[in-house]
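User: Quick sanity check before I run a bigger batch. Here is a single chain. Can you write out its predicted 3D structure?
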Amino acid sequence: LMGDGSNWIQLKLEGGPGTNAAAIGARVTVAAGDVTQSQQVDGGHGHWGTQRDLVLHFGLGPECEADVTVYWPDAAGSSQTETLVANMRHLIVQE
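Assistant: Done. Predicted structure follows.
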């Protein structure tokens, strides 16, 4: 239910020219209401070859949309911002 305090958003990134296709190294900020969160797309860690999920998950509380900014890991340091609705998985393709 929208607005019940447990809204969320999931983001899958796809890098364009100059960025790896999985967008590893991209940094994402999500602003919803008076809260801003940040995560980075992370490849893997450790000696066991573990892979972290490339889909980023953010809790939005009661907010029904979020302003999402992606900072791409390319040489130009490009970024893009979109306003996205809650409770969906969104694919963001580098422009």
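The mean pLDDT is 91.

User: Great, the batch can go ahead then.
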